[in-house]
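Hi there. Long-time user, first ticket. I'm pasting a complex I've been working with (about 322 residues overall). I'd like to know whether the download I got is complete or cut off, because the file seemed smaller than I expected. Thanks.
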Amino acid sequence: MSDISLSSLGAKVVVAASSDENHPPENIIDGNTNTFWMSTGMFPQEFIIRFAEPTMVSVVTVDSYNVKHLKIEKNTTQSASQFEFGTEKEFENTEGHLQSNALSLSGSSATHLRFIITRGYDHFVSVHRVSVQP
Amino acid sequence: MVKLRARCLVVGDAAVGKTALSHLFNSDGSLFQKNYSMTTGVELLMKCVNIPDTSDSVELYILDSAGKEALVDGCEKMWGEPSLLCLVFDLTNKQSFTNCSRWMERVRVCNKGFHIPGVLVGNKSDLTSRREVEASAAQEWAQNQGLEYCETSAKEMENCDAPLRGLARAFHSLYHERREAIQNLSLG
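Hi, the file is complete. Here it is re-exported in full:
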C-alpha cells in the first residue's frame, strides 16, 4: 500500500496550519518525496488527513525535514474532531538528507489522522510524504 | 503567495520605550502613549506586514515583555521559542545599553541554537543633548552580536516602523533561503 499514493486512494488533506501556494499540503499525500508541504513559521504545526473510508493503519511512514517531535492522533468519526492519542516520536536531526520515520499505530481503523509537529530543528519544517500500511 | 508567522520578542531595560515602539508600529503610527505606564507582564500584539515587491506577508506576533529586573523571570516563561528579536535601549541612558549583553544571554538560553534574526534599537533619538551612547559604539556592538542596528524616536515618530519591518523582511528572506535548500535536498 505504501507504493500507492494516499491521494490516489481518495485521501485528502483537510486541514493544514501553514500555506505557501507553491508547496501546498496535497504534496504530502502525492506519494512523491520530491514535492513537499512547508511550514511557514512558529510551532506547533499540524495537518489532518481524511481517508475516503475507514482504513486499517498499523504503520505510518513520514518523510520530512527538520521535524523534531511529531504526535499522531486519530479518530473514527466523519468529522475532523474528537481525536484520540495515537503515537508520538522524537525525530533525529538529519542534516543534508530527508528524515524517514516509521510510527506504529497498533493496527486500528481510522477515518482521520492528525499530525501535530510540536517542535522543529529550525524555524521551518517540511513534510514530503506520508504513507500508511495496514 | 506565502503567509509567514513569526514570534517577535521585544526586550530591553524598563522605560526605554519598548511599549511605545510596539504600539506605534502596531497602530501604523497613530498611537503614542504620552503617559508612562510600566508593562508588568508580556503584552501580545499582532500585526500583518506585507513584504514589498511580493504577494507575501508576515504575521508578527509581537511579545512586548516587561523590562524591570524583578519581573523578567516570570516573563521569560511566556517567551516560548522566539523567531525574531528586537532589543531596545535608551540612547540617553548608558546603563540600558550596557545591559543589552545580559538581554542577549537571556534570549540565547531560550532559543535553543536557532538562528534568530534580530535588531538593536537605540530609542529616544530626539533627545540629542542628553545622548550618552554614540551610534558608532552601538553599531559595532550590534554587528558583533549579529544584529542590525537602527535609531528611532517614538516621540517624534521617527523611523519607528523600520526595526520591525526590517525583521519581517529578514524572516521572509530566511524562509526563502531554507525553502530553496529543502528543494535542492529533495531533488537529491
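A couple of notes from our side: The mean pLDDT of chain B is 94. Chain B touches chain A at residues 1-7, 58, 61, 81, 83, 114, 171, 174-175, 178-179, 182, 185-187 (CB under 8 Å).
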